[in-house]
Design brief:
single chain; alpha/beta; Rossmann fold; 3 domains; eight-stranded antiparallel beta sheet; binds 5-amino-5-deoxy-1-O-phosphono-D-mannitol
Amino acid sequence: MCGIVGYVGQGHADGRPREVVLEGLRRLEYRGYDSAGIAQVSPDGTLSTAKKAGKLANLVEEIDLHPLPDATAAIGHTRWATHGAPTDRNAHPHVAGRLAVIHNGIVENFVTLKAELAAQGVECTSETDTEVAAHLLARAYDATGDLTAAMTQVARRLEGTFTLLAVHADHPRTVVGARHDSPLVVGIGEGENFLGSDVAAFISATREALELGQDQVVTITPEGVVVTDFHGAPAEGRRYTVDWDTAAAEKGGFASFMDKEIHDQPHAVADTLLGRTDVRGRLVLDELRITEEVLRAVDKIVVVACGTAAYAGHVAKYAIEHWCRIPVEVELAHEFRYRDPVVNARTLVVAVSQSGETMDTLMAVRHAKEQGATTLAIVNTHGSTIPREADAVLYTHAGPEIAVASTKAFLAQITATYLLGLYLAQLRGTMFSDEVEGKLVELRAMPERIQTVLDRSDRVREIARWMADTPSVLFLGRHVGFPVALEGALKLKELAYIHAEGFAAGELKHGPIALVEPGQPVFVVVPSPRGRHSLHAKVVSNIQEIRARGARTLVIAEDGDEAVRPFADEVFYVPQCPTLLAPLLTVVPLQVFACELATAKGLDVDQPRNLAKSVTVE
Ligand code: M6R
C-alpha cells in the first residue's frame, strides 16, 4: 500500500535528505499514488513539511514553488488512502507539536484512541487513523524526552497493522521507525542510513540492507542503526546485499515499466530456473527448509494467494496433480482464512506472492500454521514478511516488478510452481528421473519461446489499438487455458478499465454465452491439438458456437494448428510446447493486448487508478 522513505545524513544540512526522499518516493510510487508528502528536520531545530494530494509530481511542483530549507534528516510518504479521502489535509506527514509522522497500514483502534485524545483536549484535524499515532507519539515524547522510547510505548498501544516513521525537531540526526505486520527495511550507507517500505527506496544509494523482524523499533542516525523490540530490549536484523541494481528499477528505454516487464519475461523465467540442478542433473531446491520426510508425507496441497498470484496457483494445480498425484486446492487467501479449512500436519500450504507482503496471504499462512500445516512461500521479494514467517521459501527471480499490474512475476511464479511439482514428483517417485530431466529441458526452452511470442506481438498491438473503444471483452480457456483466460481478463480490467470476464470454455453453455451478441470480442485460448485431442476439439466447437452468434473471435493457438483458422477472425500463434507449460506462452499476447489498448486510451499503465502494488491491509 503506502510507500515510506526515511533518511539521515551527515552532520551538515544540505539538500540531500530532500533529494533522497523524493527519489525514494519516485521509486515507491507504485505502492500508492493518492497523495505524497515530506517532513524534514534541520540542525537549527526547524521542522518543515510539504504535502499534496495526487501524484508525486504535485508534491515536487509544490516544493519548487515553496522550497524547503536544507536539512539533515527527512521522511517521505506516498499514500494509498484507507481512512479519509485523498486530500491535502489527509496526506502524510501528520504533525503533532514539533514531531511529524508517516504511516503505512491501518490503526484499527483509532476511534478509541481518538476519543481518549479528545477527552484530554487534543483535536485531530484530519480524517485519518494516522493522526492519532502522531499525537500519542508527541505526548509520549514530551513525557520521556526520548523518541525511541516514545515509539516503543506507542507501538504497544496500536492495534492493526503499521509501519510508522517519525522525526522530531529536537533530533535533527535521527529517524525512528516501528513495524507491525507491515514492511520496513533498513538501508546501510556510509555516514548515512535509510529506511524504506522496500529496498527500491534506497537502491540508488546502497545495496546493503538490514531486514527487520516483526514488532521491532529501529532508530537510524548517521553513525548507525539500533534495533529493539516493542519493550526496548535489543534485537537484531538480518543483513543482506540486494541482488539487483538501479538499472533493474528503471524503464530502460521502454515507454512504461509494464512494457519493460512484459519484455523482461524470458529473463524472469530463465533466472527462476537457474541453479536448480546438481552435478548429476537432478533437481535440487536448496532453499526449501522442509525435510524430505515431511514432503513425502504430504497428502494435500493448498495454494493460497490473491489476484494474479492465485491464477499462477490455478496453473500449478493442473501440473502438480498430473505429475505428483497429490490433490491440490487453490484458494483466495482471504477466503481461506475466514472459513474453516481442513488442513493438518500432512497438508502443504503454498503461499504465492510477488511482494511477500500481501496481508491476506500472510494471514492465510499464519492460519495454516496454527492448524499444524507446513507452509511454503513462493515469493519474489527478498526481506519480505511472508517468507520469513513460512516454514520454507522458494524465491522467484523476476527482479523488481514496478508496474502495479503483475506480468513477469506471474510467469516466474508459474515457473517456480513447476519446479516444486517436479521436485515433489522426483522425491515421491511419481515420475522417473529421466522424465523429470525431460521436463526440465522443456522448461529451459521456454524463455526462447516466450521471446518468440514477444517478437510476434505487432499484430496484437495493432488489434489492441483498433479496439480502444470496445466496451467489453470476454476470455475463454479450458484446462490450463482457463487461468490464462482469467488473467487476460484481469489485466484488461486493471489497465484499461474495460469490462472483461474470463470463463472456463466448458461453462459457456451454462450461462455466459448469453453475453455474446454480434461484434462481441472474445479471446479464446486453445489447447494444443497434440495434447489431449478431445480438449482441442471441444474448444474449437466452443469457438464455432460463439462465432455462430456473431462474436469476433481472437484465437490464441499453437503453431501448426490449422483447425482453428476457419472460425477465427484473428489467430495469434505461439510456439509449440508441452500442454502444461503453455500458460507461459499463451498469456503473453493477452498482457501485450491489455497494455497496448490502455496506452491507446491514454491511460497510465504503470499506475492504474485505485490500485496499489502491494496490498498490505485486509
Ligand atoms: O504481491 P502479491 O503477488 O501477493 O499480490 C497479489 C495481488 O494483489 C496481485 O497479483 C494483483 O492482483 C495485481 N494487481 C495483479 O496484476
